[in-house]
Design brief:
Arc Repressor Mutant, subunit A, 266 residues, disordered N terminus, Rossmann fold, 10 helices, homodimer, 39% helix, alpha/beta, DNA-binding
DNA sequence: AGAAATAATTACATTATGCAACATAAACGG
DNA sequence: CCGTTTATGTTGCATAATGTAATTATTTCT
């Protein structure tokens, strides 16, 4: 994907800790997790050394230690964290598929939600993006990436989504010219519509669909056929719906009739 | 991989140190790190020589020495995370003192910065607050508290502060009626003025001082006497300055003459 | 719940690196 | 030609990083 212009392999000089640290953090940013054994093999050093590296990085607050490795450090700990675990593989696949729709230099809107957070992780690979988001976690994640500009849409923070919502956020959306928007949703109804839990959320997503160059809904398969109370107005203007596997045939057909393309992540 | 357009190999004349230095810096720019042994092999000189080269370049501020080699000199790398550890006790004390100024039900503005983050932690004890902040970490922290409403001021995110900054944030400040504002600052100058690093920051803080019912600057003792480039306009309208120990007498007197009270945290 | 497997911890051995002092050799200037 | 300067090499020892192995926790699987 990104051409590797590094002259020296991180394995080349065994004794340079910062090189390992750089590679570890890079992997962490890409994958979300690293394993001790896999790192020890890669660098050809002992597990103990990797443990010491991880401990050091953890003390600096750059990652979280877990049994057998480390994960991204996220100040995020809430109901939100639990949801992130659910269907994590599916969400990662959707995230990668979404990132394939993005080119370096684009202006990307990222909605709140765990699936869009997965997309944000995948987008760490891209350069020179301008990210525009309502999600606190996504803003925090992306602003640490040096070639990325981040705009946070302000407003009252919704406790469940950990994202801004309401009049201020709606207002702020109008200030941006967005190339691609990635949106979450509450469910994908049997008649091929993306639906939402809250009025505010539906309205916010509707505006993004209308104003973004291209808008995609990211929906993992647990959302198929789920009925939530609000339809998202102008949903049919969306460019596509990205899913982790093909939904029931009825939904596919309904979706196709309305317009948005169906994109199934590998 | 990288085409070498140089006419002379840096190894060609062993005795020319500047050639080595150029090559070292080039490698550093490409890889982020260089190893002593690998350089010694490459130039076919002793490790001690390379060590002397690196020492010289380090004294010039062109790189950072590490065990076994050198890395890019990056004063800003992980700046925020590192700062959080510094003076943690002092900041916690200031945070508690700040929280004592707050009553349940108030509308509180929290600026970005590590000291205000400490105040946010202390404010978790309070009930029914409305928090208004530019800091992503503070927003994330406070929004998990069930009896607290959080408003995030939107805008472009500053990588170092991990907080919104700029026109959108300035604009958003005007929408709020704030009871108490807790602000950070870059330094407390010898003539009793709070100063700042950036124009945007100074302007933002100035507005808060003017519009909040009461504004307090939270400054740990490492800021005493420190000179940063921008004064914060209308600083003297602030209700007080909260510190972890009494500053030099000259500063105390200057401060008193201007108006703000000096509050020393226990 | 209990056993097997995997990982973390601890303590100590080994190796690599850092540093300082001194040795060497080429370059320079009179 | 000599003495001086400058850069580099060498040596010995202190220090830091890494490896190893025994022990104790955790997880995982049944």
């Amino acid at each position: 994907m990104t051409a590797d212009i590094r002259m020296t392999d991180p394995r080349s000089t065994r004794a340079l800790a910062p090189r390992r640290h750089g590679e570890i953090l890079r992997r962490l940013a890409a994958d979300g997790t690293v394993g001790i054994t896999e790192l020890a093999d890669f660098f050809d050093v002992s597990r103990q050394t990797i443990r010491r590296d991880l401990k050091l990085l953890a003390d600096r607050g750059q990652l979280d230690l877990v049994h057998g490795g480390a994960t991204l450090f996220e100040p995020t700990e809430a109901a939100f964290t639990a949801r992130r675990e659910e269907n994590a593989d599916a969400k990662a696949a959707i995230g990668r598929a979404a990132a394939d729709l993005v080119r370096d230099g684009m202006v990307v809107f990222l909605d709140s939600g765990t699936t869009t957070l997965a997309a944000a992780h995948a987008l760490l690979e891209c350069k020179n993006l301008t990210i525009c988001t309502t999600s606190l976690s996504i803003a925090l994640l992306m602003c640490r990436q040096s070639l990325t500009r981040v705009h946070m849409l302000g407003g009252e923070i919704d406790r469940d989504e950990e994202a801004s919502i309401g009049v201020d956020a709606l207002e702020a959306i109008n200030h941006f010219r967005v190339d691609v928007a990635f949106l979450g949703g509450g469910g994908l109804s049997p008649d091929g519509e993306v639906t939402d839990f809250t009025r505010n959320g539906a309205e916010q997503r509707s505006r993004m669909v209308a104003t973004a160059g291209k808008a995609y809904f990211l929906l993992d398969s647990s959302k198929f056929g789920r009925l939530t109370p609000l339809r998202i107005p102008r949903f049919e203007l969306a460019a596509g719906v990205v899913v982790d596997r093909r939904p029931p045939e009825a939904i596919c057909e309904a979706l196709e009739r309305k317009g948005p393309a169906l994109i199934v992540a590998a």
